[in-house]
Structures are given as C-alpha cells and as structure tokens.
TrEMBL record:
Residues 177-272 form the SET domain. It comes from Decorospora gaudefroyi. This is SET domain-containing protein.
Length: 410
C-alpha cells in the first residue's frame, strides 16, 4: 500500500498558498483510466532524447522547452492533455522538467524564472551545511558553521514539477514521469534519482522518490508536486530550527534559520503543521512519510498542554468584546510559549497578537516593534505575496495610532 505524502508550499501571484497531502493508491488496485487508444500516443518512456532528430531543429518553436512536447490523449477527468516539457537550459543549465497541461506550461514559461537570468545566489553551493547519515533518519543536513536567525541555508530551483492528477494509472504515470526525468541534464537527473524513496519498488521508482520528497504548489488553481533535490535532504522535526518559503517568481525554494544552530547540529524543517497535537502529527508523519517521529516535542509529556494553552491565549487575544481578558502580559506569555516549544519559525500570529495587544492599550512603540516582527516572520514563512504580509505592511505604514486596534482596550 502506498502511504500518502504531505508537504506545504506558499505561492502567488499565479500560485496560492497551499497545504495538502498527496494520496496515492496501491499500485495493484489502480484501474487504468485512460483508454487503450491513448497508449498509441505515448512515446517510449525510456527513449533518450536525441538532439539530432528532425524535430529538434525546430526547437525554437517550443521555447523555452527544448523538445516538442509529448502529450497524453485527452484525459476525461480534466478534459485536457498532460505533456512533458523540459528546459535543459533553465537556471544556467541546471534544467527542469514539467508534466502539466499546455495552458499551465505556458504560465510557467511566462514566469521571471524562465524569462530572465536568476539572481546569482540561487543554486550556488553554500558553506552553511553538509549532508551526512543520521542514525534512524537516512541522510540529513548538518550545520557546517554556527548559524544565526535569518541566515540562508539553501536557495534552489526545482528539477521536477508534475500536475497532481488521479487520471493516469500508477504504471502510466511512472512512464510519463520517467520521460520527464530522463530528459533532465545528467547532473540534476543523477541527483534526483539518488534521492530517498519510501517503498523501494523499482517499477515505481520515480513516483516513490516524488512521494518521499515532494512539496506541493498550486498553479493556476491546480496542485502540482515539486521536487527540489538539495532541499530534499532536510529531515523533519516538530520544533524545527529552520523554515522554508518559495519565491514564486523564480520558483526558488529558500530555507532560513529560525534560531541559533551550532556547528554539527542537524538543520530541520517541519513536514506537518506544528501547532497540532502530538498524536495528529505522529499520524500524519507515519501515514505520509513512513516514519515515527522521536523528536523531543513528541516525547514531551507537557507539549500538548502547552498547545492548548497557546490556543486559549490566542482566543482571548482575538476577543475584542468589552469582557475580553486580553492584555499585553497575555501576549508576552504567548510569545514565551512559542519559544519554549521551539516554534520560532511559526511566530507570525503570536507577534501579530502582541502588536494588537500593545496598540490596544496605547503603547505605540511596542505595537510597531511586534508588527515588524510579524511581518518578518511571515516573509520567512509565507513570502511577501500573502495577505497577512500586506496587513502588517499596512499597519507599519499607517502607524499604530491609525490602526483600528489603537486604544481599543483602555
Ligand atoms: C524528504 S526526505 C528527508 C531526507 C532523507 N532522510 C534522505 O535520506 O534523503 C524524507 C524522509 O526522511 C526520513 N525522515 C525525515 N525526518 C525524519 C525523522 N525526524 N525521523 C526519522 N526519519 C525521518 C523519512 O524516511 C522520510 O520519508
């Protein structure tokens, strides 16, 4: 049985913030939903692309894609075809392959990522980390030097993007995805094929790799699975010391440090929403990622009590009725609890509550300080395109005194 894989991504403007699990069916029970006629239109999955083919001479017709797209027949559930699009020259020759519908490939191709040279820090090796085997976790990423809040750990473009569908059978999907991966330049293809997997079944190796390593993004209203090979080595912790964000213009996956990391310490992100109870997180990790989390938060006897106190405090701070017990002291307690739980990468809401709580008692300096921290935390977690970023930007531009919350609790 295939488990499902969960991960998150946040995107705009053609993207939107999204969090969802990828559920896959067992290989042996998946019905082939495309007609046999459609098979005639498939190319051989492992047939290597030859630039000497006549079609390659017309490559500019397909720019930025190097090959004439090869497509499925029209799939009834989406009333469209899915095609393989590859650009070996993407990101200075790192390359990228997509499996998506033509209109969305067009949207991807219009992104700055395809239209202009990428900023030089993207896809550059950094000296911040190295990979190593971690007992019980496979390969992980360890800090190569002391890292501080806000330090950038990685900035990479993806190798593989696939439309999330349930139209194709697992074997057929494997055929198409393999074609997409086979067309990548050798370096990134090797990295992709060397990534970890869940089942170990060679027949579905590409899907297996995607299952263990994918993030999801929504593009034009459609979920896509995305693999960033370097970032894939980040293991999970329920109190992670790093946070990721995706720049939708450049398709770049960034990872930043959210609390000090000592040399040799493992760098981690959270695969699950960390403000859910231990059992929920455990179940998601087990079913989605096939491992039992043994991190300190999962073993802590008081972590769930702290979560419930966090929720109570947030409910009070969100209560603007005259009877509300909300106060700056309550906001400070909330901030402390987030820190105690190791959730420094998820403090945007807590900082926001603090900004409002201080503004509500007429402390403009503290309100502005916390609004700035809320904006910074959102930028690091969700990017600048999300509405909450604009909300705090607006607060800071207008000033605490102009905000609706000003002196609302005096
Ligand atoms: C995205 S990969 C992370 C890198 C992976 N460890 C590797 O060897 O390439 C996800 C897989 O890593 C392993 N993993 C990640 N975090 C873990 C943790 N906290 N404990 C145990 N295994 C973990 C699981 O096997 C999971 O399916």
């Amino acid at each position: 049985m295939f488990p499902h894989f969960c991960n998150f991504a946040f995107l705009s403007p053609i993207f939107s913030r999204y969090r969802q699990c990828w559920r896959e069916s067992p290989l042996h029970t998946v019905a082939i939903q495309t007609s046999l006629d459609g098979l005639k239109e498939y190319v051989l999955p492992t047939q290597p692309y030859s630039r000497s083919t006549a079609k390659a001479e017309k490559e500019s017709e397909y720019a930025p894609w190097s090959h004439p797209p090869i497509c499925t027949s029209t799939l009834p559930g989406i009333n469209d075809t899915l095609c393989v699009y590859t650009s070996p020259s993407f990101a200075s020759g790192r390359g990228i392959s997509l499996f998506t519908i033509p209109s969305l490939a067009h949207q991807f191709a219009a992104l700055p990522a395809f239209q202009a040279p990428l900023p030089p820090h993207i896809n550059k090796p950094t000296h911040t980390y190295h990979t190593s085997a971690i007992p019980g976790k496979g390969i992980g990423m360890l800090a190569s030097q002391a890292l501080s809040f806000g330090d950038r750990v990685t900035a990479h473009t993806p190798a593989f993007i696939a439309y999330l569908e349930s139209e194709l059978s697992t074997p057929l999907r494997e055929t198409w995805w393999r074609t997409a991966v086979d067309r990548l330049p050798e370096g990134v293809k090797k990295e992709f094929m060397g990534l970890t997997y869940v089942y170990g079944d060679e027949r579905v190796r590409v899907q297996d790799i995607v299952k263990a390593n994918t993030f999801q993004i929504e593009v034009g209203g459609v979920n896509h699975l995305v693999v960033w090979p370097e970032t894939s080595r980040l293991n999970h912790a329920c109190a992670p010391n790093a946070q990721y964000v995706i720049d939708t213009d450049t398709l770049t996956h960034y990872v930043h440090v959210t609390r000090p990391i000592a040399p040799g310490e493992e760098i981690t992100i959270s695969y699950t929403p960390p403000l859910t109870p231990t059992q929920t997180r455990q179940s998601q990790l087990h079913h989605g990622f096939n491992f039992i989390c043994t991190c300190p938060r999962c073993k802590s006897p008081t972590s769930d009590e702290t979560l419930s106190r966090i929720q109570t405090l947030q409910a009070h701070l969100n209560d603007w009725s005259p009877a509300s017990p909300a106060s700056p002291a309550m906001a400070e307690e909330l901030l402390q609890l987030y820190c105690d739980e190791g959730l420094q990468g998820f403090m945007d809401a807590a900082y926001g509550f603090a900004a409002l709580a201080y503004g509500a008692v007429g402390d403009a300096d503290a309100a502005v300080r916390y609004a700035g921290l809320a904006r910074e935390a959102i930028e690091m977690k969700d990017g600048r395109g999300v509405p909450n970023f604009g909300l705090w930007e607006g607060f800071l531009e207008g000033g605490a005194r102009a905000h609706w919350s000003w002196r609302r609790r005096v």
